[in-house]
Amino acid sequence: MSFTHTHPSKTLTCTSLSGNPNIYRRLTTISMATDRAAAVPSPPQQRRRTMSALEARVSLVAALAIQASSLSQRLLLELATETAKYVFPKQFEARTLEEALMAVPDIETVKFKVLSRRDQYEIREIEAYIIAETTMPGKSGFDFNGASQSFNVLAEYLFGKNTTKEKMEMTTPVYTRKVQSDGEKMEMTTPVITKRLGDQDKWQMSFVIPSKYSANTPLPKDPSVRIEEVPRKVVAVVAFSGFVTNEEVKKRESKLREALKNDGQFQVKEGTSVEVAQYNPPFTLPFQRRNEISLEVESKEE
After folding, report:
1. Closest by Cα among 256, 230, 231, 251 to 123
2. Residue 205 near residue 194 (C-beta atoms within 8 A)
3. With 0-12 CB in 10 A as exposed, 13-18 as middle and 19+ as buried, what is 291?
4. Could you tell me the end-to-end alpha-carbon distance of the chain, in angstroms, rounded to an integer?
5. What is the CB neighbour count within 10 angstroms for residue 204?
6. Residues 231/278, Cβ–Cβ less than 8 Å
7. Residue 22 — very low, low, confident or very high, per pLDDT cuts 50/70/90?
8. How far apart (Å, rounded) are the C-alpha atoms in residues 87 and 38?
9. Three-state DSSP state, 283
10. What is the CB neighbour count within 10 angstroms for residue 122?
11. Strand partners, 267
């Protein structure tokens, strides 16, 4: 027996023996399953959603906020680290109660070794270092306006006004020293040093360059700032607290020179000028401030 089964997409023609009725039922089942499959709609393709201008702005603001928060955390950490250097200062070995109350910020300073201690002073061997120096305006090494102007000039160099735009760390102390009128090379340590030009009544101030830049010190853009290398030297040092004035420096220099006359081992090196080291920021209480005056010395055997 032959019959034809028609489908919307296909026409099936089958031949079957009269004694086998299952063939028809099987074909009918296949046809119905095909019809159901054709009736199920295919899932629509999902279109890519476009972000609106408002959503884009909100997303940008959120990203910037996260970035700013991360930056703020880093800045706060750096600020806390720097503050700790002043809140938890280091102290030198004290010989008197006055020295015991002095505090020095925990930042890089000139390296030295104490060779001996006397009742009124101590003898130190200072390692070589590099300084940035400038001549101070005015006739006083401790005139507020002149000192502030010189300090700012050196600070600008240290914090980026140099040929490599390098921002270097602050060191301590700041040195102020008299300078010989014949242009004698100045020796200064980590403070800022002010040095007076002997016959011209001039002073010079110096910052010590951080030791990691000693091999490749950035050059200043300001012609009034000079870079000098200070060789190893031996000095006699007296520490005192309070604020530094010209009168105080003169009094303590005279006293130190007189004491060194009776030293059996060291004498003041010929042509030496007094050098003043100041270790603390302006907000330090007077009794906590550490100041030092020093004179370069040499062995009497030399």
Report:
1. 256
2. yes
3. buried
4. 137
5. 26
6. no
7. low
8. 82
9. coil
10. 20
11. 298
